[in-house]
Amino acid sequence: MSKQPSSYLSSKLEGRLKADKSGNSIYAIEPINKGELIAVFGGVVYEWETFIHLPEIERMLCLQVEDRHFLVPRPIGEGDYVNHSCNPNAGLSGQIGLVAMRDIQIGEEVCFDYAMCDTMPYDEFECLCGAPHCRGKVGGNDWMRPELQKRYAGFFAPHVQRKIDAQKAERRAFERAMRNAKTGAHAKPVVATMYK
Ligand SMILES: [Zn+2]
After folding, report:
1. Considering the entire predicted model, what is its pTM?
2. How far away, in angstroms, is 181 Cα from ligand 1 center?
């Protein structure tokens, strides 16, 4: 290997070509416990306006770390070949950490769900992950799906979690307004004034 890669990959994993030669992946070569650190991503951070003009290979391997900021690996290492799955065994811890969501056995491919970090449409694709509940298409708005918010609670990047919290607060405010409208809580004084 030439230069030290910008990402860290636990010594319990290795990157290699998939059996069907469709691309690189990372595999456990030792058992990994739930909660254990798998990788820490590194590289150069770009703002959206610059990022979208980078070569496709760099955009594909990047990690969205903020609403408009993207981490691109330089140089690329084994740890940057973590694929997407709709049934992942790993999730994010903070902006750049990847941890095991459950115990992982030797030989298992380690994947996370890109909905945990993506809120922009820079890497949308037809998903062929083969999971029973595969959503077929992976896009920048997948984090909005209630079932994913529930399944990946605690494993979203901070910028995505902020959006989820804001969305929930908005929904609660709307429901409160609807309840008040139904009970006429705000309408009463007006009516009372009109018919005095
Ligand atoms: Zn899928």
Report:
1. 0.87
2. 41
